[in-house]
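Students often ask what a holo structure prediction actually looks like on paper. The answer is less mysterious than it sounds. You provide the chain, you provide the ligand, and the output is a string of discrete structure tokens encoding the 3D arrangement of the protein together with flavin-adenine dinucleotide.
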Amino acid sequence: MSQTPPLAGSGLRVSFEFFPPKTEKMEENLWRSIERLAPLGPSFVSVTYGAGGSTRERTHQTIERILKETTLTPAAHLTCVDASREEVDEVVRQYWETGVRHFVALRGDGQNGVGGKYVPREDGYRNAVELVAGLKAFADFEISVAAYPEKHPESPDFATDIDLLKRKVDNGATRAITQFFFDNDVFERYVERVRRAGIYIPIVPGIVPIHDFVKVARFSNATGAKIPSWLAERFDGLEEDPQTRSHVAAAVCAEQVLDLQKRGLSDFHFYTMNRADLVYSICHILGMRAGTAAAPKSEAAAA
Ligand code: FAD
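The corresponding structure tokens follow.
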């Protein structure tokens, strides 16, 4: 199941996903998070796009600031929700002018977020397959797409789901990032199915550190990610004990990544939830150390 040759040092290559801030306080927190994680040298950092394009401006501003103030490579998430092709193409053009060359191309969900019914617009891109084609028609972007080890909740079966992924790859997707999952056997079986379907792009595991078990469990319910009983037991009784919870979360997540690494994986995408400390601890356990690879410009200049 090996995808890329192992790397020196920790042998890992990581990317970090952030969401755009809503308030000034959240913005400060996001930048603290980016500055804390940047020295780990992620191959890229991505910024999500809210349901219904609700964060269009904020996503753009965050990406722009990453480009201006750091040496990190940003990837802009983009969805088809509630926008015409022209509107989406205009957003792409603005990103192009800012210097963005990597998109995470998604269909998106309906107005109520995850699980909300998606209704394609007559004049819009109907799904990620079409969005990838639209992006490629504009420029030779690097394009990451979503993949679902436990299949997308709307998919009738794995065959349909993987066929959709194949069409995204045929249209130009260069990497798939998975929905988060907790059972590595499930991921391994999924990659085998994907390879059997003739899909050879990297399938990068999406890793979610469990900062709050109750919240993650609720979200898992909507995305279709199963929570194994052993995982629930690890967090049992810690509802009022955030400090222990955070130690357990770091250990559980590092354990998952180390096991995937043993199975031949070297690339990992972390859903950071803008919580740098937990992700930083996990990366430290994994053997990653702050270097100079992609430090914020200010630090790089001072070094
Ligand atoms: P698609 O690949 O277009 O389709 C998803 C599924 O829908 C398919 O697997 C298939 O089962 C079904 N389907 C679609 N079209 C057809 C068809 N014609 N015939 C049959 N079945 C069909 N959401 C956001 O709003 N903002 C984000 O920033 C964001 N980032 C994400 C990042 C990652 C790494 C992941 C895994 C998900 C992210 N999402 C985000 C969630 C995503 O938008 C939802 O999972 C959405 O429901 C599906 O998007 P998609 O790109 O996978 O859709």
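The first strand starts at residue 13 and ends at 18.
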